[in-house]
Design brief:
Elements (H helix, E strand, L loop, with lengths): L2 H4 L8 H12 L4 H26 L20 H16 L1 H4 L6 H15 L9 H13 L5 H4 L4 E8 L2 E6 L4 E3 L7 H13 L11 E7 L2 E7 L9 E7 L7 H6 L5 H12 L4 E5 L5 H10 L6 E6 L10 E2 L2 E2 L2 E6 L12 H8 L6 E7 L3 H9 L4 E7 L3 H12 L7 H11 L2 E7 L5 E11 L5 E16 L5 E9 L5 H9 L4 H6 L8
Pfam families: T2SSE
Protein name: Bacterial type II secretion system protein E domain-containing protein
GO molecular function: ATP hydrolysis activity
């Protein structure tokens, strides 16, 4: 039995061990002795495997590791985290502060593993690698939030307090997480790490901060003293879905009809300014993003976004850029000379000779600069928070007044001239999104305004089914034709007559 294993024995590599085996072979031993020897061989093989694993981790010369009995069993994870954070900060802080350092992730994991092994640390319910990964995630990433921030199908993470976190999904679901931070201090530390990416500082001097994690992830944060001490922090992490929506997706989900979408894309193509209005999570940015993808490659686009970039309109074919796009973002700074706002970028836009300018969202005084640009002949696309198509104009007026001291009537004349088309989007009670209305504001020869509802979503019933699910039934309908003045403008901008005719409602026979 022993002889059959001799050829593969780990002793073969060592002459002393060979002499040891030869001596034993020459002795008369019992079956029990043979069994003990085989057991010893297996133990040495296991030891060799451990040595190989330790070598991979860079700790082959250590006499103790996670593979041996730890000195501390069931230590609290938060205590271990504090110890490891202190160790890394004191010895390898560059791995945390320098985002450009190559292999920083692997280096930090290696040093965390080294510390855990040296101290023979164990946490109940975690094996060695799980502990190292969890420590790394807490220190260099965003803890349990990481998988939600960078996961698919998630639109928003709402942190109501350190122990109350909700996730909103793209399909309308809202879920409270069982996971939470360990304490208010833990929550603040993780959020500070997020804000570090955009160079923002969260402290008692600046307890309200806006920042971003990447071009499609925005974060708004409040900390004490703006929220209670036992809450610690409140934050909203908004994730703009990177998936590019197609016309078929909007039609399939009943957000809008094919006719409505074609109508809007034709307007933008032929130089008409459009404002997409709605509340938070109504789908404004998604609609705007799709509209921009329909613009021909020979049209020059200039985009302006606040703080972080959500739009990505550059098109490639065979490795070459085939369209003409300039993406810009604002830069915030306490130093006024270094600050670059949307008004400055809109001023620059006119010098770049764009066919279409895009203002990601109108929130303040930039609304006045945007309407000024739209009245120069450039098509301006933008979004705004408003309750309806008609109220959108009043909201624009109030934003413009932050920049200029003019009468409401004068500004109303400006914004209705600048944006003849308003699109109103809404998230319904059942979390489904609908394009509720497309409206044209026609300015009459005497200066009065005629609001024309071109398309409308008509709700026929709201009810609950037997499972408690909210059901909303309705349909989209084209209600009015575009005005003669808009028809004339489109014709002058190059739109074929047969397309203009599709924008007119056929009279129903009596």
């Amino acid at each position: 039995m022993l002889g059959s294993k001799k050829g593969n024995s780990v002793f073969k590599e060592d002459k002393k061990k060979q002499r040891f085996v030869s001596k034993i072979e020459n002795e008369s031993y019992t079956e029990a002795t043979a069994f003990e020897l085989e057991k010893r061989v297996e133990e040495l093989i296991d030891t060799a495997k451990i040595h190989k694993k330790s070598k991979e981790l860079g700790t082959e010369n250590r006499n103790h590791s996670l593979f041996f009995a730890p000195e501390s069993e069931g230590k609290d994870f938060s205590d271990v985290l504090k110890d490891v954070q202190k160790y890394i900060s004191n010895n390898y802080s560059v791995l945390i502060t320098d985002n450009n350092l190559e292999d920083a992730k692997e280096q930090m994991k290696r040093y965390i593993g080294k510390y855990v092994m040296d101290k023979r640390i164990a946490v109940k319910g975690m094996d060695g690698q799980e502990l190292i990964n969890a420590l790394y995630s807490e220190m260099a990433e965003y803890g349990f939030l990481t998988k939600y921030i960078f996961g698919r199908g998630i639109e928003e993470i709402d942190i109501n307090s350190w122990q109350d976190i909700e996730v909103q999904y793209s399909d309308g679901r809202n879920e409270k997480l069982n996971e939470h931070f360990d304490s208010p201090e833990h929550a603040i530390n993780v959020i500070r790490r997020m804000l570090h990416v955009s160079g923002m500082v969260l402290d008692n001097a600046t307890p309200a901060v806006l920042g971003h994690l990447s071009k499609n992830i925005r974060i708004a944060v409040l900390k004490t003293p703006l929220v209670d001490e036992d809450v610690g922090i409140a934050a909203s992490i908004r994730i703009v879905n990177p998936q590019s929506m197609k016309k078929e997706d909007f039609v399939r989900s009943k957000t809008a009809t094919e006719q409505m979408l074609d109508f809007l894309s034709y307007l933008v193509r032929y130089g008409i300014s459009v404002c997409v209005a709605g509340a938070t999570s109504s789908g404004k940015t998604t609609v705007l993003g799709w509209l921009l993808t329909t613009i021909p490659n020979n049209k020059r686009i200039y985009t302006i976004e606040n703080g972080s970039r959500e739009l990505d309109l550059t098109k490639y074919e065979n490795g070459k850029v085939v369209n003409s796009v300039i993406h810009t973002i604002t830069r915030d700074s306490e130093n006024e000379k270094q600050k670059v706002d949307q008004i400055t970028l809109l001023d620059m836009a006119l010098r770049f000779n764009p066919d279409i300018a895009v203002v990601g969202e109108m929130r303040g005084a930039e609304a006045n600069a945007a309407q000024e640009a739209a009245r120069t002949g450039i098509a301006v696309l933008t979004t705004i928070h408003a309750n309806s198509c008609e109220s959108t104009y009043r909201r624009m007026v109030s934003l413009c007044k932050r920049a200029v001291d003019m009468s409401d009537e004068t500004l109303m004349g400006y914004v209705t001239e600048a944006y003849p088309i308003i699109v109103f989007c809404k998230q319904l009670e059942n979390k489904e999104r609908r394009m509720m209305e497309i409206m044209e504001c026609e300015i009459m020869p005497d200066g009065t305004r005629n609001y024309r509802t071109l398309f409308q979503y008509i709700i026929t019933e709201n009810r609950m089914d037997e499972n408690g699910k909210f059901i909303i039934e309705g349909y989209h309908k084209q209600k009015c034709s575009i005005s003669k003045s808009l028809s004339k403008r489109l014709l002058e901008n190059g739109m074929p007559l047969d397309i203009i005719e599709t924008m007119k409602v056929k009279e129903e026979p009596f």
